[in-house]
Structures are given as C-alpha cells and as structure tokens.
Amino acid sequence: MDATKAKSIIDIHCHTAGIGAGNSGCFISPAMRRSWRYRVFLKAFGVTEQELLSEGDGLVMRRTAETLAVSERVTAAVILAMDGAVDEKGELDRSQTEMFIPNEFVAAETAKYPNLLFGASINPLRRDALDRLEWAAANGAVLVKWLPSIQHFDPADRRLVPFYQKLRELGLPLLTHTGSEKSFTATRNELADPERLRLPLSLGVNVIAAHAASNGRNQGESNHRRFLRLCGEYQNLYADISALTQLNRLTHLRRLLKHPELFGRLLYGTDMPIPNTAAVTPLGFPNRLSPRRMLQIASIPNPWDQDVALKEALGVPEQIFFNANSIIRL
Q1: Cut 0.90: pTM above it
Q2: What is the CA radius of gyration of the chain?
Q3: What is the pLDDT of residues 202-220, one digit of tens each?
Q4: What is the DSSP letter of 163?
Q5: What angle do CA 280, 282, 286 make, to 5 degrees?
Q6: Of 2, 16, 69, 248, which is the most exposed, with the fewest CB atoms less than 10 Å away?
Q7: What values do phi and psi take at 12, rounded to 5?
Q8: What stretches of 14-151 show up as alpha helix (H) in DSSP?
Q9: CA–CA gap between residue 76 and residue 223 (Å, rounded)
Q10: Domains of the chain, earliest start first
Q11: What is the pLDDT of residue 31?
C-alpha cells in the first residue's frame, strides 16, 4: 500500500437507505415507515420521499458521495448493505425484516463513485450464504456487516463455521453490531452480546465490534466489560468508534480511550447519517470542551470534517483515524 493511501481517513461505518425506488430492490417494512425514525432518517440523508420516487434510491449515495467529496479530512466511506431475516428455508423473510438494502444495489452504486466502498451484508443462515459471500468478494466488498439483533441469528451458532472459514479465506473482516440497538422498532439485543463472537474469533476471523459494545448488558454484566475481556484474549478483535459521540453515549468514548493498549485496534467510523441528527452535537460536551471550542467545531459545515474535529478534541489519537487502511480489504 502506498503512503498516500496509508494516510487516508476511511469511514468504515456509513449507512444508506432506500424505499424500492428505481428498481433498487430495497424495502422498508410498514411498521418502520410508520415510525418517527423513518422521517428522521430521510431528513438526515438529505432527501425526501418524493425525491426518491422521482430519482431513485441511488440518490442517497450520490448525495453522500458529493458531501464526502468536499470533506477536507475524510477520503472514503464504506457504504453498508443490510440483509434481512431469513425463514426456515434460508430465504429472505420480508415479514420479519424491517429494512433491506441488497448487496447488488450497493455494489453497483458505490462503483460509480471513487470515494465510496462496498460493505456487503449477508445473513449467514441464507441457503446460499457462501455463494453470496463469494459474489460480494468478487464485486469489491471490503467487509461484511451484520446486525444480528434484527437479522435474527446467533453469531455463536456452530452452523456458521463454514461461513467464518470462508470469510477468513477471502480476507474479509466482519463488522458486527455489539451492544443494544435502538434504531429499529423490534430487536433481540441478546444476539449482539460480544461474548457470542468467540466462535469467529477462535477461527481467526478479523472481527470489528461496531460501537465497541458501548451500551447494554448481558448476564448481569455490561457489554463493554465483556468486550474488553475478549480483547485481552483475541488479538483479532477490533472495534469502531462510530456513534460514541451521541448524546446518549457521552461517557463512552472517554471510557474506551482509557485503554491505550487498544489504540492499534480501534477504527474510525461515523454511523452516518446519525451525525446529521440531533443525536450528535459538539455542544453536548461542556464538561470536556470550552464554549469557544464547541462553537468552533459546530461551525464546521461538512459533517465528516466536524466529526473528525470533535473526536480529535475529545482525545482520539491520530493513529485511530488511519487504522482502517491496514484492516479492510482495499
């Protein structure tokens, strides 16, 4: 890898959305569309439902790429597909899926923009999961993203061993949600217990714990403590720092940064479009930053530049912003 790429900041945790417009194959469940979250997310992505119906779901990624292109700090972003729950036949179960963003759509759209990277999502209980994984790798996927609490599978299920072995063979890291999930209307948060990641870790998969298991509890113990214990046992366990500046997680980043032994395994991420919502504001840190500094950061127009500046001000060392270059498959 050349020196320029090694010093590029890559956001490894960026979402997209779609309602099925333009034959994208995306869908959002009726329950989710009735939820207040739906309106918030559309606004955060900078689109309206009418615009999507007129121009197609690819509009979200086009605007993401345009906004990212004028960032002075962040070079590229991994755009994450979102697979759904599956039925007993290993086929997509729409009745149990709140949001579906197919790999084919994300792969095709990200290929149009040099600053967007393809993050695949494959429910490992799909009948053809291994074929889908091979396809994703062949079509430029840089990682595989899971959200077990809404995709309804257990990462500790030994039926997933062949999937994990294929991930390792292909050199694809697994980015999987850890901790409580509150962005959907129904979740099984016990499935995002970091302790359930022992199986892929033991098989040598590079696992990235999204949000560093910063919230929630399992078996009477904080998920964050369970995550830290695993870090001590497995050098192939990483984490991203996305969402850790949200108002409901104000102490989480500071707590994580008390572990400098992990700095080589922490990766930069935003959880975009969350930084475009009221859940994240530089004005939420009066106990850490001066009023002048908070206002200065809040005045930065580009959301990626603002996010980097806020995390720098809160003590994130330079190394963490560049770690993704050596982890994800470019």
Answers
A1: yes
A2: 19
A3: 999 999 999 999 888 888 8
A4: H
A5: 120
A6: 2
A7: -90, 5
A8: 30-34, 36-45, 49-55, 58-69, 103-110, 129-138, 148-151
A9: 30
A10: 7-326 (3.20.20.140)
A11: 85
